[in-house]
Amino acid sequence: MTTEPLTTGVAPDVERVQRRTVGVLSGAVALGGLGITVGITVGGLLARDVAGTDAAAGLGQTAGVLGAAVLAVPLARLSDRAGRRAGLAAGYAVAVGGAVLTVVAAALSSLPLLLAGLFAFGAATACSLQARYAAADLAVPERRGRALSLVVWATTVGSVVGPNLAGPGADLGRALGLPALGGGFVLAAAVLAVVAVGLQLALRPDPLLLARRLRDGAGPAPVRPRRATRAALAAVWADPGGRLGIVAVVVSHAVMVGVMVMTPVHMGHAGGHDDATTLRLVGLVISVHVAGMYLFSPLVGLLADRVGRRATVAAGGLLLLAAAVIAGTAPPEATARLSVGLLLLGLGWSCGLIAGSTLVTESVSAEVRPTAQGGTDLLMGLGAAVAGAVGGPLLALGGFGLVAGVSAVLVVPLALVWVRR
């Protein structure tokens, strides 16, 4: 394990390091969010264009979500062994490779290569999510929810701007002789490369390694058994709060992805608009959605700390249901109504993610937290991947209303766990 100098003193220096850590992480996810949401906005549309079917749009988004889920575990293990800096920088570097591969796939019109690129690109989402846990490594318990939420909030900066770069990205793609939608991933690769380098240089001292040394001294990192993720998740599930936290995170993310990834395809069925206008409207709606996800997260974190994690989870579930009703009954051309529905969808996700992640963090000892957090993100991503995979067939079978209705049903397990806690 890499050793780093301890700060002199205790409380004042730890507070200073914590402020610096949150600042660095916030800057990274803010910039990284720009690249991620460009990919989210055009990834499904690019897959649809390459394959020629709406169902392929769901496959494209699912590949990215599945990549975020599967890659969360090795990245968490790397963080466990070598610190948050190593795990996050490596993950963003993998995402850069995925973006480059996606551009090549677009140029070759190869769906298998495209799906592989989008899978690797999902590492950026995994890093963005794991950064929230890094913000909590040095935080005191009564401020843990707010520390976590501040990093989630920082994603607003890039994520709201990102979808609106779909148009300029298309211009760049055409200028480079690529399919128009491939240009967005050129921008994403450049942005995420800057993030990877920035984290490697600026996230010092490493918050996880420092927290461990302050607690245990500068001993070597414990060796984890091969099935450490399963054991860590079992420990979370054994705690009533941890159980609610896992279900809240998984359900919130699955419902959000299930509705969100099919929204651009649904809007693409509107008549009376050319492709450029449709792309701008899609960017607008996704920007509103992303604002709901991230813009109010400090208030959500404050709510989780002051009112309670359980109440915040309940509020999130109700918001998800309202979002499914409003968005699911909106026709493709109803941009304002879809914006309202997607705004509520983002707010519901924020409540479930922040309160649920805090519950998971608090349910296990510090020794297994990174592994438990990575395992939780794996389950979260797998649930979202399933939701994204069935979105295309559901859209083809019964329209966007069926997609939203099935997504809303996923809130039922969360309600059952909440009542029984």
From TrEMBL:
PROSITE patterns reported in the protein's UniProt record: MFS, SUGAR_TRANSPORT_1
Residues covered by the Major facilitator superfamily (MFS) profile domain: 21-421
Protein's membrane topology: Multi-pass membrane protein
Key words of the record: Membrane, Transmembrane, Transmembrane helix
Subcellular compartments: Cell membrane
Chief place where the protein resides: membrane
UniProt xrefs under Pfam families: MFS_1
Protein name: Predicted arabinose efflux permease, MFS family
